[in-house]
Amino acid sequence: MKCYVPGPNVKVLGRTIHALARFGDELYLESLVDCVRLRTLNTAESAYAMVKFNKNFFSYFNYNYNSNNDNDGPKCKISMKSALNTFKSPAHMDKQVENLEIKLELDQCKLIFQFKCKHGIIKTHYVSILDSKVTQAVYTKDLVPNRITSSQRILSEAISNFQSSDDQVTLEALSHSILLRNYIDDNIDLSKIIRTQINIKSEEFDSYTVDEETAVTFTMKEFKALLTFAEALGLPIQIQFETTGKPIVFIIHNGTTLEAHFVLATTKPDVTTQASTTQKSSRVERNKRKDSSNLTESASKKPHLEEDISKCLDEDSHLFNFVDIPNEEIPTNNCDNSVNVENNNLVDIKDCDNIPASPTSKTMIKSLFKKCFESTFDPRSTQDVVLAGNSDSE
Amino acid sequence: MTEGLKLTVEEGKCVQASAYVPADNFTEYHVREDVDVMFKISIAVLAECLNIFGSAEESSLKMYYRCEGSPLLLVLQPQSVHNVMTDCEISTQTPDSLLDLRDSDADEVAKLVLKAPAFLALLADLERSCDVLELNLSPEHPNVSIVTYGMQDRSCIDMPKSSDMVSSFSCEQALTLRYQLHHIRLFMKALALSSKVVLRFSSNGVLLLQLKLEKEDQRQMFSEFYIVPLLDD
Q1: Per the similarity annotation, which family is this (chain A) (predicted)?
Q2: Which of A122, A349, A393, B122 is the most exposed place for a label (fewest CB within 10 A)?
Q3: Chain B closest CA to A87's CA: distance in Å?
Q4: Record: fold of B108-227
C-alpha cells in the first residue's frame, strides 16, 4: 500500500488518530481497492471504532503497489502509541506539513510515514508492525428502529453540563425527545453526587426516528472522544441504536471522503436510580430560572440555545441539576410572553416576570450546616474539639 | 573580564553552558584589569535573588564584588514601584577548575548555522520516550539527518542544506555522532529566546552550540553549550 495525503487532509488524519487513541491501544490498518480503513478496539472489547478513508481522500492511492498476490489487500496492526507519536499535534499540522506519504512495507515489517514539511524538511517515521491481521466487529446499523441525526454542537453542549467525574451516560429515547443523564451507580451515596439530566426535544435534531422507546447506557470517555472528533471536522452525528444490551453506533461522515463508525456497548440503566429521578423531580421545591443571552437572537431555524436551568434543592437537600432545551419557538421580541412548559411535571413557569427568587442564604446555610439543626444533634459533642483554630491570635 | 560578564555552569562533566553578556549591555561596567575576577556562587540562589520581585517585574540591578572572599552584592529596584529595594548578599566561593572542552588539537569538522525558532520546533517534536539522538552530517543530500530510536520505532528528520532554515552549512566528510537527548533538551530553553544558532562539531565529537540572543535595541547576548558525545562501546 502506498498513498499520498495532501496537507489539509493530514490534519484530518491526525484528528482521526487522536480520536481512535481514546478508544484503543492498538491501531489496525487495512487497505482495500478503493479505501483505507483504520480500526481500533479497546481492551475490554466494549468500544470499537472504524474510520474509512475513500480513495479521493488521497492525492495518490495504490492499494497494493508492491503487488504480492494477496487479494485481500495489505493490512497491519501497529501500536497506538507509535501512531500518536507520528501525529503529535494535529492542530498545527496543516501549517507545517505539505504532504504525507504512507507506505506499508510488509517485507520490512514497517509502516512508513513520511512528512514533507515546510523549510524542505522531511520527517520519516518507521513504525514497526506488530501483526498483519485485523479484527472486525459485527454490528447492525441500518436496520435498527431508532435513528437520530444531530449536529455535534447540540450534543457537545449537552455533554458540557456533566461533571468531569461522570463516567457513564444514559440516553433515554422517547418518541418526541431524548433524555441524557449521568449514570449513577447503586453503591454511591446519593447525597454526595450531582445528578444531571438534559432533555432535548426531537425538533432539535436534523432527523429523529424512535420506533422503540428505550434507554441505553454507555461510557462517557469514548462518547466525548467521538464528539471532539465530530467537532473538529464540523460534521453531524448519526446515532443508531436498538435497545439495552445492543451496541449503539455513532456514524460521522462527510459523504465523499471519509466515514467513521464508533460502536459502544450499552448496559442496562439502573432501575432504582431511574425511579428516584422521576420521583425527585416531582418533589421540586425551588427553582431558579436563568435566562440565556440567546433570547435576543431571532427565532431562526437553527437549534435554540435557550436553556432553562432549574437548579433545584429538593427535600433531601440534595442538588439536582436539570437542564432543559425546549422545543417551543420563543417569541424573542417580547420576553414576557415566553411560555415554557417543561417536561416531567417539573415546574410551570408562566412568564419571565415571575422569576422566582434565588434560594436565600438562610436555606443554603441551613443545608450546609444541616447537622446542627437536626433534633439528634448534641452540641456537647463538638465542644472540646476545635475544628478550625482562630486564624489570628490577637 | 573587561569585555563582559560570563556565567558558566556544568553538569556531570558532560555539558558546559555559559552565558556571555558583553559590557555594552550594562549602563555602567567597571572591572579591574590587572586580575582575573572569577568566583563561584550557587545559581539557584542567584536566580532566586534576581526574581525576587517576580519574573514578570522589570527591575534595575546593581552588582558589586570587592575582592576574593567577599560576597557578591546585588541591589534590585523594580521599575514600577518606587522606594522599594532589595539588597542581596551572596557569599562566594573560590572556583573549581572549569572543564576545558575547547580542545585546540581537535579541528572543526562541520559547522551549521540555523534559524533558532525552526530548530526548536524540530527538537520539540522529537519523541519524549527515547534517550539517544543520532546526528548524521554529510556533504551529500540529505545533508543533516536527525534520528531517534523509540521503543520499536525509528524516526528520522532530514534537513537539506537548501532548506531556508539553514543559513550556512559546511561539512567536508560524512560523520555520525550520538548525543544524550537529555543533554540536547537542556539548551531548548535558551533556544526559545534566541534568533540564531551555530552548531560546531569538532573532530573529537564535542558539539559546541552558540546561541545569539538579540534584543530590540540591537544589543546582543550570547550563550554557549559544549556537549560531549556518546561513544560507541
Answers
A1: Belongs to the rad9 family.
A2: A393
A3: 10
A4: Proliferating Cell Nuclear Antigen (3.70.10)
